[in-house]
Amino acid sequence: MIEWLQENFPHGTNYLIAQKDAEQINTCLSKQLVLPAYAGRKQSLWGETARKLSITGKKLGWVPNKLPAAFFADSVELEIADACAAREGLLQFKKLHLDYAREILARLNLLYIIQRNPYFLSEGETKLLWFITQWVKQPEYLIVGHLPSSLSKKRTDELVNFFLESETKTDNTVTIMLGYISHQKDWFSRLLTNSKWKVIQQLPCL
Amino acid sequence: MKILTSKNTLHFVTVLAAGCSASYWAVAATHYLLPLLWLLFFSVWIVVRERREFKNFLKRFSQIGSALLVVSLFQIIFRRQGMVIVSFEGFPLIYSVGLMEAVLLWIRYMIIFMLAYIFAQVPVFDFFLFLNKIRISMQFSLLLLTTLRFLPFIFDEARKSLWSLRFRGFDPKDLSFKEKYIALKKLFKPLLFRGIHYASFSSLALELRGYCISGWVKIPAAYPLKLVDYLVLALVVIINLYGVYYLTK
Description:
The complex is a heterodimer.
Chain A: H1 2-8, E1 14-18, H2 24-33, H3 35-38, H4 42-46, H5 48-59, E2 60-63, H6 76-87, H7 95-107, H8 123-135, E3 141-144, H9 153-168, E4 175-180, H10 189-192, E5 197-200
Parallel strand pairs in A: 1-4, 1-5, 2-3, 3-4
Helix pairs in contact in A: 6-7, 6-8
Chain B: H1 12-28, H2 33-49, H3 54-78, E1 84-88, E2 91-95, H4 96-120, H5 124-133, H6 138-167, H7 177-208, H8 227-248
Antiparallel strand pairs in B: 1-2
């Protein structure tokens, strides 16, 4: 899957991909990433497909509208610190990971949920937390099925700002891919004028 | 309004009657015939009822069957009574009693596993209706059913957690022993937390719906025996009568 992405979406540009509805890209990715690990029995849990997921997971970040995953930590900051540690192949976080988690939460104006249990977050907050855990992995590709789903206009704008700010940083290597529905142009209009963003009118078949 | 129960499954009474009879004859029988008859009965039952699952069933049962062969082998080795059936250069290897006990033991276990499989196919709601129809207290039946419903929930949550762990880039198979322990701790703690949360919310939902105010509530659902149930029950009665006749002969 990563090879396919590298072939169709070269690095150096971020992408806006047109889709028929808010779930088109997510459904496509779900078929590739979630279903093989869920359908069937022992083989799908421990077999080759499941093993491939960990390799893909290192290089790919995905933010669906409906989360097929679970959180491990007791609080939002610990969850993000855990995800930071995972990027370095560690199962336990260090102080620097915790500091980074606090920093990124501050950047996204999410300090008010820092001590909250991820299980009790609202749908939008859950999506934001999952987004951060994917972002801190610093994957090759970060795919967001439909950014405004479950998020307020203010939050969506904050995230768009976050993407635009991140582009200016030299250490950023993530290629962002955002799905959009053509009649909802208000949230991504600023990205259209940015030279680092390219619009793809049709989702290439995976 | 009458709630409809699942059409494609046998009545719980049918399953229970067949299960009790088979268990009794599997233990009481001192000859091959009746346990073999029950084994055949359940095999046909599963093949007919679960045609799509037949391949999986065959695979699983051949695995269990071969594992049980090892257990049965001990009977052959240590039961040295009856007639010598096989000997090697004058040394008796297999005795008739040992062989019979080994075969009976294998059949008994196979019947138990088949029964577990058949009971697992009964929908939870049908089981709940059965308990309701025989006027079992709601406190007991709901507790039992919550426990049953809890297992798939825990399995789903565990699968979710495992997926999350993998999507973070960890493969449990590649972890060292210490890392496996940490990963397990990571998976188990939220699982327990979510389990307790699920249980408390289910309990609250039931209380809010007024369950357990009285000991028993009549559920407006029909749960009749169907033609296929009568046929299976008739077959169960015939095998039982034949067993009694065979025993007293």
